[in-house]
Amino acid sequence: MKRLYAFFICLLAVLAMRAQIVTTTPDFPTENDEVTIIFDATKGTAGLKGFTGDVYAHTGVILSTGTSWQYAPTWGDNSAKYKLTSLGNDKWQLKITPNIREYYGVKDGETVKQLAFVFRSADTSKEGKDTGNKDIFVDVHTAGLTVRFDQPAEKENLITNTALTIQASASVASALKLYVDATEIAMEANATTISKSHTFSTAGRYTLKAEATANGKTVSATQEVTVLNGTSTSEKMPQGVRPGINYISDTEATLVLQAPQKEYVYVVGDFNDWTPKSDYQLKQDGEYFWITLSGLTKGEEYAFQYLVDGSIYIADPYTDKVLDPWNDSYIESTTYPNLKPYPTGKAEGIVSVLQTGQTAYNWKVKNFERPASEQLVIYEMLIRDFTEEHTFNAAKEKLEYLKNLGVNAIELMPVNEFEGNTSWGYNPSFYFAVDKYYGTKNDLRAFVDECHSQGMAVIIDLVLNHSFGQSPFYLLYKDADGKPSADNPWYNQESNIKNTSLSWGYDFNHESEYTRALVDSVAGFWMSEYKIDGFRYDFTKGFSNTPYGENDWANGPDNARIANLKRMSAAVQKRQPGAYVIFEHLAATSEERQLGDAGILLWCNKNETYCETAMGWSGSKTDFSGLYAGTSMPAGSLVGYMESHDEERTGFKAWKWGNTGVIASTTSTNTGMSPATGSNINLSTRTKRLATNAAFFLTVPGPKMIWQFGELGYDFSINNNSDGSGYDDQGGFRTDPKPIRWDYFEDADRKKLYETYAALLDLRHSYPELFASNTTFSWKVGTANWDNGRTLSATSIDGKSLVVVGNFTLADKNFSVTFQETGTWYELLKDNEPLSVSSTTQTIAVPAHEFRLFTNFKPTLTGIETTAPDAEKPLIYYNRGMDTLVLPAGEAKRVEVYSVNGMLVMTQEKCTSVGLSALPVGYYMARAYMEDGRVQVCKIMK
Description:
Elements: H1 2-20, E1 22-25, E2 35-40, E3 55-63, E4 69-70, E5 85-88, E6 91-96, H2 100-104, E7 112-121, E8 127-128, E9 136-139, E10 147-151, E11 156-159, E12 162-180, E13 183-200, E14 204-214, E15 217-228, E16 244-249, E17 252-258, E18 265-269, E19 283-285, E20 288-293, E21 301-308, E22 312-314, E23 322-323, E24 351-355, E25 377-381, H3 383-386, H4 392-396, H5 399-405, E26 409-412, E27 416-418, E28 428-434, H6 441-453, E29 457-462, E30 466-467, H7 472-475, E31 506-507, H8 513-530, E32 534-537, H9 559-575, E33 580-583, H10 589-597, E34 601-605, H11 607-615, E35 638-641, H12 650-657, H13 676-679, H14 683-695, E36 704-707, H15 748-766, E37 776-780, E38 790-795, E39 801-806, E40 813-818, E41 823-827, E42 833-837, E43 841-846, E44 851-855, E45 877-879, E46 884-886, E47 892-899, E48 904-911, E49 913-915, E50 923-930, E51 935-941
Parallel strand pairs: 11-15, 25-26, 25-36, 26-29, 29-32, 32-33, 33-34, 34-35, 35-36
Antiparallel strand pairs: 1-2, 2-6, 3-4, 3-7, 5-6, 7-8, 7-9, 10-12, 12-13, 12-14, 14-15, 16-17, 17-20, 18-21, 19-20, 21-22, 21-24, 23-24, 27-28, 30-31, 37-38, 38-39, 39-44, 40-43, 41-42, 41-44, 45-46, 46-49, 47-48, 47-50, 50-51
Helix pairs in contact: 8-9, 11-12, 11-14, 12-14, 14-15
Family: Belongs to the glycosyl hydrolase 13 family.
Signal peptide: 1-19
Keywords: Signal
C-alpha cells in the first residue's frame, strides 16, 4: 500500500502540473476573443525549462467536426506570429490577435473546439509538451454560460481505492452539480467553482459530468476517467517468446514488454477501442509483462500502445512498423501505398503496428557471397538525397549505374525510424522499424535483393550511442527534468563525454546488460529479416562510461570501450560469420589498432588532404600517407574516404577555393582565402583535379568508400539546401535536403570523371591481387614532392605491377618516375598504349592537374578491347569511352537497341560496331543477331 499511496501523491502532482502548463486570458476564451497564452516551461515535459533562446508555438485548432489539427503551419515555421515573448522565470507569452478565428484563418461555417500547441526552440531540437509527451490543448467556449472540468485531466487514469479530486468551473455564478455516472456527488447553490474528492473502489471506466444552471439555462460538460487494477497477475511467459511482437498463428500474437520495476501494464489499441480494459492487462513474469491476443484477423493491421503504470503510453520498442501523428501525413501514397491511417482522437504519440499472417518475402538471392572486406568499394548513400522520389524503389532503379561504376557495397545512412521525415537519421527512435518515408519493409528487402543480384553487399548505419525523446526506452524511465531517470536500465542520466561537440540526445549506457542485449538484438534482426551484410556503427567513441571532460575529444585508449566494442563485434560474427563490422571511431591509433586486430574495420577520414589537393594547394595538409593501413594499422583495416556525409564536399572546395596561381600555394589554410580565387576555376580543371585525387585513392590497397555523387564532382556545399542557391555554402543546415543532380551525368567533363572512377575500379576488381593486403605498396606522396610529382606503386605477389604518377601543380610537368622493372608497360587510360621502359628511372610528361597510370601487363577490362581469341570474346559489349557497341566476335546480321520502356530506338544491319552518340543519356538494351544464329543481349547505361 505504501507504493500505491506514493503513486497517488505523484498523480496529484501530475494533475497540478497539467492544470498550470498553459493559462489563458480570458479564462473562458471564445472564437472571437483576443487570447493571451502563458506557457510555463517548467511544467509538462519541461523540455524548454531553463531555455533562453527563441521559443515558437507550433499551433493549430481542433474543429467541432474532427479531432486532428487544422490550420497549423509547417513544422519549424519561425514566422513572427508564432514567436513567444519571454516573461522571465520560465514563463512565455503568446498573443493570439485580433481573435482566434482571424489568427488561424478559420473559414466561415467552421467551429473551433480547441487550440492545440507544441512549444519549441527555433531549431526544433527542444520541445515543451504536456505530461506524457502529449500535445497541449486549450478549450474554446461558446459565449454565455459555460462549464468545464479543471481536474482531472481529460482521459485520466488512476488505480482503485485512491481518491480523485474532481473540480469544475463555470463562466458565471451558477447552481453547480457533479456526477459520477448517474450519481450526484456534490452540489453548490451559487458559485463559479465546485470540487469534490471521490474514491473509486472498482476498476472500470466512469463518466464524470459537471452541470451548471443560471438564468433558466443549463449546460454540462462530461469526460471519462479510467480506474485500473494496480497489481499484476504473475504467470510464466510461453516458451520461446521474447520482447516485442511474437506471432503465434494467423489469429494470435503474444506481446512482451520488458519493464523492470514497473507495477502494471495494459495494452490498448484497435482491438479494444483504445480502452484499458481488464481483459487487456498484461501478466507479469519477473521484469517482463506479456499477453496473448486472440481472435485477430489474418492480414489486418492493428495499431496499439502499452499503458504503463497508468500514465506512460509507449509504442512497442521492438515493433517493425510505427504510425506517427506528426509526420505520416507528409508521406506520399506513391512512397508508401495504403498506409494505415493514424488513430486520431484515440491515441497520442507514436503507436506500433502488428499484423498476423504476413506473406513472407520471396528472396531471389538466398546465398549471397559477400566481397572480401579488403576488396570493398562502398558507396555511402542517403536515400533522401539520392533520388527525387527518396525511396528504396527509386534507388533500386539506379543500381546498374553503381554497378557500372564499380561499386560492390552500398552503405545506407540510417533507415530505421528516426524523428521527422527528412533527417539524416542520426536521431533514431525505433531500431527495428523501417522508416516509412523511404518505403515499405518489402521495398527495402527488394532493394537488398537487387543489390545482391548485382553483386553488391548492403551495409546499414546504426546509431546506438544515443537517441532522443521519442524512444520508448527513454519514455519508460525519465525524471521530472526530462532526463533519463537513475533507474533507467538502458541510459545514463548524463553523457560520460562532457564535450558538447561529442554529446547528443540521451546517452546509452553500454556497460548495462540491457543495452548490450539491445545492441546485439538490433544487429541480429537486420541480418535475419533483411539479409543485411554488415553495419557501420556511428560514434563508437561513446560506447563506454569512462569520464571525459569538456575539452576532451575522448580519443583514449579506453580499455573498457575496447572490451565492449570487441564483445559487440563478436556477437555480430556469432550470428552471421563474415558480416562486416565498421566503426566510426576516429580515436587514438593505439586503440584503433586493437580493434583492427579483432577484425573490425575503421573509418579513415582523409577529407582535409583530398580537399587541399582538389583545390590545387600544397603544404602540410596534403600528405596522403595516413590512408594506407599496413604499417601502424593492420593491413586492410581502414575504410578510407575522401569525403563522407559529415565533411565538406571536395568538389565544392575545388570550385570555391581552387588555386589559380594568384595566391602563393604556401599560404593555404583552407580558410581566409578569397572566394574569388576559385570562381574562375572551370569545370574541366576541377574534374581533372578530382580524377587525379581518385587515382591516388582508389589504387591504394584496402577497402574504400565513396560519398554519393563524388564520382560526378558534386559541388554543392554540405551547408546548402535543396533549392541549390547557386553553389554557396549559406542558406541551409548540414542536414537539409540537398539538390539532386542526375543531370550531371549528361555533362561531358563530369561523365569523364565518372568513367575515370569506373576504369580505376574496373582495374581494382579485375586484378584484386594488386590491391590485396600482401601487395608490396609504396608511394611518394609527402608534402615536399609537388614539383617532383607524386607517385604510387604496387606489386602483387605474382609480379603484376602498377605505377601512378600525378601532377598536382598548375603547369605541365616532366617527372622522373621509378618503375619496378624495365620492359613494356601499358597506360591504362590511353587504350593500353605501350611504353618502353629501358631504365627503371624514366621521365614521364604529365599535363597540369592530371595523372598517368601504367601497368607491366596489358589489362583486360570491360571498356578495353581484348586480344584474346574470338571464341573467348563476348558477342557484344558496350565501350563506355567510345560510346559504341562493339561486336568483337564478328559481323552481326542485325543489331536492335531498345529504350528502358521497350521502344525500339535504333537498328543497324551488317555491322561490327554501332555508334550510340545520337542517343540521349539513359538506360538501353541492345540485342545482336549473329550470322551463326547466336543472339546476345547487352545492357547499356549512358
